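Priority: medium. Attachment 1 of 2:
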């Protein structure tokens, strides 16, 4: 059987190395030799090998240490270690360090070949499993949309269901949560996919131009209108009009848009002939339209007309399950040579705040890929403003969360915090006031009140016990 598989033999004993190399080459393996762990690590950094066979006891790094380091560079490369006869300890240690198998010295050539074959078979099996798992994971993708969180899966299902009708859709979510991606996915998975998807950013076009932009104008409609011009409604005929930042649509136009949606026809500026408008409307905003309605900045009737199918995308920090698949997709999008992210770096990414949501995550990945040339993005390649999971900010969130679970009032949290700071300054109120950012008198008042309350509370408890 032709093998064509590549392996490295690591041993400081030259005779042993050569003996094994000859044996393996005769079996059709491509063999490289390394006289030390560092030499072997150097080799795997450059090229991927199918297997590493290494002695444990060597000057410099041991085989066990090498396995550890190899795991960070090439987590999928299997290692078989050679242990001295009778040394059970190092056999156990070898397996614990992550070696796939071990063989005790001295050994027969057949035995070492068999061990090797078994290890390679297992690796092939694992690769196959990974491939299958990845194929299953494809369900974490719907068109361009990526996500594994329950929220995102619900959105997949909703998008799939509504893609084929022409009900208006209103997508809401913070900046960078993927509103435009959702809009595109709806369009390209529906029966309008062959027709145009026309996006317009309502906040980017001056109020005076917006009407003619949307509905078109006839020649002479206003100064400078030397020719007539089609509007975006007509450009999108049969397809989808994506009204981005709909919250910024000026009130004057909200009425006109409502008319167009109700009558399913438009009137170009300066014209008196109505033109039928067969478009599906998808609107998006990162504003709170309910608040905008309350303050009179957004028409209620238009809101209900648009909000036939509401899609709300939660912020990324509320769906950390989506971070790993997004990271993988962004790495693929911004590099072309199979680069990745180290487990430690992934942990950092999962625990970061992501005020800018997926867009910020994407920018972070793109920058890290550009600034480092290692195969895997390391935790150090990520900007420092990402809170470390163990940092005060991270645990601060945990504290707040537990306070929320206990349903503490803001006042109670403040009191607890004031107490803590006072304790950390050894009771020094001047210092504590500085840390808390309040003036000293306020702190005195609060501290007195807290003390009085504490006394009352304990007094009551004692009283209760007595009574
Ligand atoms: N679920 C997702 N799957 C794949 N890519 C995503 C997803 N969410 C966001 N992105 C990517 O993040 C970036 C920002 O997404 P998008 O432009 O859709 O956000 P947005 O909600 O429209 O933001 P804004 O409110 O600022 O306009 C894009 O590059 C997009 O490809
Ligand atoms: Mg957008």
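Attachment 2 of 2:
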């Amino acid at each position: 059987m032709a093998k064509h598989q590549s392996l490295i033999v690591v041993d400081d004993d030259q005779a042993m190395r050569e003996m094994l190399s000859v044996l393996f080459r005769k079996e059709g393996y491509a063999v490289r030799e390394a006289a030390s762990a560092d030499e072997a690590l150097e080799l795997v950094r450059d090229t991927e090998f199918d297997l590493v066979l290494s002695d444990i006891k060597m000057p410099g790094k041991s085989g066990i240490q090498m396995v550890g380091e190899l795991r960070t560079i090439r987590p999928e490369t299997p290692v078989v270690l050679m242990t001295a006869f009778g040394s059970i300890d190092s056999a156990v240690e070898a397996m614990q360090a992550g070696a796939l198998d071990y063989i005790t010295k001295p050994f027969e050539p057949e035995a070492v070949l068999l061990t090797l074959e078994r290890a390679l078979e297992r690796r092939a099996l694992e690769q196959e499993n990974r491939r299958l798992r990845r194929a299953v994971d494809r369900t974490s993708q719907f068109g361009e949309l990526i996500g594994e969180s329950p929220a995102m899966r619900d959105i997949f299902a909703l998008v799939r269901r509504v893609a084929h009708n022409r009900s208006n859709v209103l997508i809401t979510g913070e900046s960078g949560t993927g509103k435009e991606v959702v809009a595109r996915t709806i369009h390209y998975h529906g029966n309008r996919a062959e027709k145009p998807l026309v996006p317009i950013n309502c906040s980017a076009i001056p109020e005076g131009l917006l009407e003619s932009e949307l509905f078109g104008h006839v020649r002479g409609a206003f100064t400078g209108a030397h020719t007539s011009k089609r509007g975006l409604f007509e450009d999108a005929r049969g397809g989808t009009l994506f009204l981005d930042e709909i919250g910024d649509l000026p009130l004057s136009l909200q009425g006109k848009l409502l008319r167009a949606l109700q009558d399913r026809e438009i009137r170009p500026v300066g014209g008196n002939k109505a033109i039928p408008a067969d478009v599906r409307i998808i609107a998006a905003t990162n504003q709170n339209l309910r608040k905008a309605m309350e303050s009179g900045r957004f028409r209620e009737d238009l809101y209900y007309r648009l909000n036939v199918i509401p899609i709300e995308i939660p912020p990324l920090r509320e769906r950390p399950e989506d971070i790993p698949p997004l990271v993988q997709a962004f790495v693929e999008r911004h590099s072309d040579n199979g680069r990745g992210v180290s487990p430690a770096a992934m942990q950092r990414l999962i625990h970061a705040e992501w005020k800018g949501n997926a867009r910020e995550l994407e920018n972070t990945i793109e920058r890290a890929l550009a600034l480092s040339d290692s195969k895997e993005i390391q935790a150090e390649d990520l900007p420092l403003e990402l809170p470390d999971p163990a940092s005060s900010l991270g645990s601060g969130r945990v504290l707040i969360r537990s306070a929320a679970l206990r349903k503490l009032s803001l006042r109670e949290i403040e009191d607890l915090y004031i107490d803590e700071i006072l304790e950390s300054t050894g009771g020094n109120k001047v210092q504590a006031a500085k840390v808390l950012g309040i003036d000293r008198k306020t702190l005195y008042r609060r501290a007195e009140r807290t003390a009085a309350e504490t006394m009352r509370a304990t007094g009551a408890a004692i009283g209760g016990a007595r009574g």
